[in-house]
Amino acid sequence: xxxxxxxxxxxxxxxxxxxxxxxxxxxxxxxxxxxxxxxxxxxxxxxxxxxxxxxxxxxxxxxxxxxxxxxxxxxxxxxxxxxxxxxxxxxxxxxxxxxxxxxxxxxxxxxxxxxxxxxxxxxxxxxxxxxxxxxxxxxxxxxxxxxxxxxxxxxxxxxxxxxxxxxxxxxxxxxxxxxxxxxxxxxxxxxxxxxxxxxxxxxxxxxxxxxxxxxxxxxxxxxxxxxxxxxxxxxxxxxxxxxxxxxxxxxxxxxxxxxxxxxxxxxxxxxxxxxxxxxxxxxxxxxxxxxxxxxxxxxxxxxxxxxxxxxxxxxxxxxxxxxxxxxxxxxxxxxxxxxxxxxxxxxxxxxxxxxxxxxxxxxxxxxxxxxxxxxxxxxxxxxxxxxxxxxxxxxxxxxxxxxxxxxxxxxxxxxxxxxxxxxxxxxxxxxxxxxxxxxxxxxxxxxxxxxxxxxxxxxxxxxxxxxxxxxxxxxxxxxxxxxxxxxxxxxxxxxxxxxxxxxxxxxxxxxxxxxxxxxxxxxxxxxxxxxxxxxxxxxxxxxxxxxxxxxxxxxxxxxxxxxxxxxxxxxxxxxxxxxxxxxxxxxxxxxxxxxxxxxxxxxxxxxxxxxxxxxxxxxxxxxxxxxxxxxxxxxxxxxxxxxxxxxxxxxxxxxxxxxxxxxxxxxxxxxxxxxxxxxxxxxxxxxxxxxxxxxxxxxxxxxxxxxxxxxxxxxxxxxxxxxxxxxxxxxxxxxxxxxxxxxxxxxxxxxxxxxxxxxxxxxxxxxxxxxxxxxxxxxxxxxxxxxxxxxxxxxxxxxxxxxxxxxxxxxxxxxxxxxxxxxxxxxxxxxxxxxxxxxxxxxxxxxxxxxxxxxxxxxxxxxxxxxxxxxxxxxxxxxxxxxxxxxxxxxxxxxxxxxxxxxxxxxxxxxxxxxxxxxxxxxxxxxxxxxxxxxxxxxxxxxxxxxxxxxxxxxxxxxxxxxxxxxxxxxxxxxxxxxxxxxxxxxxxxxxxxxxxxxxxxxxxxxxxxxxxxxxxxxxxxxxxxxxxxxxxxxxxxxxxxxxxxxxxxxxxxxxxxxxxxxxxxxxxxxxxxxxxxxxxxxxxxxxxxxxxxxxxxxxxxxxxxxxxxxxxxxxxxxxxxxxxxxxxxxxxxxxxxxxxxxxxxxxxxxxxxxxxxxxxxxxxxxxxxxxxxxxxxxxxxxxxxxxxxxxxxxxxxxxxxxxxxxxxxxxxxxxxxxxxxxxxxxxxxxxxxxxxxxxxxxxxxxxxxxxxxxxxxxxxxxxxxxxxxxxxxxxxxxxxxxxxxxxxxxxxxxxxxxxxxxxxxxxx
Length: 1309
Prior knowledge:
1309 residues; alpha+beta; five-stranded mixed β-sheet; 76% helix; flat
């Protein structure tokens, strides 16, 4: 049985990494005592980590579990936990786990090193093996005979997790599911359920597959018969084709010879017709050309050709001269445009410089006026307004004004500095007055705060005095209550002793021992009777089996009698002869169903062919519609549903309109430029010739024209962009003309294809109706066949069952005879079992009475303890009230002292109020004086600053005007204006010369073009004469060829005779080919059918149809049997789990009730228990858990309603109940600080409960209770049970390392 023996700790938390600490665990009790923070809980953490590999809560991946490297001042710390324990098999094991903590640059790194497990062989030799941590975590719980959740949550539960039974519902459910291993069994049930579902789906698939395989089997047989017929027909068609081939070859050779002769004759006739047509055409051309001749020459051909070449040279020279003149004209036009642009620029520059001179004169007048005003205002100089001010005088006057501005700025600066000094002195004096006033106010506030504090303390003391005096008045009541509680407690103790419950319990225990002895005797008697019971059981079983088989036979026969009589159409024969009658009836129905299926298959093949044609036609129609949609989509993107030809025509008209507008804009641009030039030269409107009276009107007119001129390029660019876009669109539209034609063609084809599809659909509908009728007939025949087939099996089964009934009767007779020979005991096993069950009920009744007496004793003891606790509380309350007298005296002295201090502070406060008033008045006077001085200085400063700002503004304005006046000189406006006038005169003169030269060149070009036109007519006459003579030569050559070809052709009827012979032979060949093609088509169809049948027979579905049908049928039956077994197993496992869970919860709640009533000393909770509810919302059965407290018949959730002490006690009781229920092989439980939040009465009762458990289980070899606490009184209570001689004290040495020291238990007393 499992127990822990000893453990070594090194480098864990506060334990030294250099010195190991060893602790030994005793049976049945191990005690660890120490102050807070000394390392007691580390022992539980090490036990848990050694057994499960689970780290304590909040350990940062193990970094906080190992001794800190910074505390040890080491770069790396090694940690070790070594635990020796005895496994469930009784063998000793030693598990060792190693860890390391390394200090890196920025963080600490924790590593779990390889662990080791050591055991001993039968010979006593040590065997050690290294293990991975994950493997060891699974191995240790198996060796200890307990699950990992029990180790984590029950046996070695951490102090921070000790109250887990009162967690929220979800977390509590997770804990209990882990303890019950519910998830593992739930997964098993889910797996079984899924397997059932998969098998059911497989069964359905198998049934469908078997139906398909049956059809395949029948289809394969029919195909083999068809294959034989088609093979015979192919051989006959091959012989017929051979004979027709020989006949056709003879006819075709004769036909080819006639065709060759006829082609030769035809070619000659065609050439003759061609020659005559050429002759007629040349004659017509000759006549037309002779009429168009202006003059017909009589010279020879060579002389006429020489005259034509000479004339061509002269014409070429005249054209070259005309081209030179045209080039010169272009050069003159370019020069004229350059001169016009230069003249236009000169006009623009002239107007600009004139405007600059006007602006210069105006600015100088403004500057003179401004200077005169400033000089007069500040009395700096006298200016004569009748004389014009020169630039030099203006510069001199500006110097005087700027000097005056500098003087005003210096005066203003000095005035500001004097004002700032005077105000600073006043501010210092005012600040001193304000500081004194604030100090007095702070002193007053401080005194008032002290007075309020003293008064508050005085009020609190008075209130406490009144409360204590009121409490003192209750001393008499408490003394009488104490006397009453003493009397009640003594009376209850007397009543408990008078009941003599212990003696009654002892009598009932002895009675139960006697009953148990009788039960043992009856059990041995039952074992002896069991030897004969097997034979009796066999007889009973044989009788039951015989009756069952007879009943099944009668029931089966009655259920199928009517159907079988209807099938065989005669009264039923004997059961042995029934199968042959049913078999013959089934064979008849089978033949009918086969004929119906054959007709349905032939109709199905015709329907498949029709469906193929219909699908092909629909596919063609869909393709045509898709093509039409694509074409419409392409057209829609460009023409948006309009007629393509209309869109093309509109686009061409838009292009022509834009080109016309572009030509108009080009000419208008030149026209506007000419208008501007004319208006600037003549100072009048070019259209109406109205003169401009003012220069501003002329400038406004020119500006308007220039604005229009500027907008022309942009408008022209927009029009050009639009033109490019329209031309691109026209190109796209031209490309779409083919798409437009394709669209019209597709629409016609779609109409034809739709008509074809409609016709095929009507034909297919008629065929489908016929197939549906055949399908219904086939289904009815198949149902009749299946019904007959099922009756065949039933008939065989009835015959077999009849034979089984006869055999069972013979077996029963034999077993009855054997039992009569062997049996000699007068009692039966049932009688002995009934007596045994009666005694068992009596023993259970005795146990119930014992439990009731023990419960009564516990309730009496609980009532006595309740009164004792109440008596103790009353005594404490009385003692506290006796101590109130001294407190009241001390409080009254404090009140007198506070009154004196408050009086003193009040007198000081009156004096301070007078001083504050005087200081306030002084501050107000100084503030008013400082405000008056500041206002006076600000007024003076404003006046001086206003004068400075006015003068400075005037200077800025004069400087701005001066900068705008252009400077005279060589590059001045007047000089530039003269230069522009000279350049304008030169340009006008050059333009006049170019105009004269252009007119002369134009006259020469006109003369040259007239001469070239005359020469071209003469050139045409020479060419026509040469062409006329060439036509005459060609006509003479054609006449000679026609005469020769007519002699070669001979008679005119030769071609007709050949055509008649050829037509006759072609008809004979066509008839022979028709016969050959018909025979070949028939042979091809047959061969395709043979090929199709062979391919179908080679398919996987038909090649092994019979074998596959047999295998599939066997697999179906075995799968159905396996599915039935799984269904039974699922129900059995589910019921077993439900039963196991309910039994375990009953045991747990029973133990919880006993421990709670023995431990808890309050009267507000009778007991607690764990309630479970089935989770209805889940697909898989699961439970929800909650802890409730009971008072009478009322159950309330304990979570959120209990105190901290009740929570601790409830958690301890639940853990101990779980340990007693689940830890059959491992009786270890560790309690860490179990007295936390418990009062003294509950601590005592909890110690008594633990002592009672220890007394009951001290003889159990695997029971170990490990208690860790800081409460030495609690340890003293446990030490009185004399179940342990030592305890372990945990402390820290001078270096802060934890130490484990073994001490005698008597040292605590």
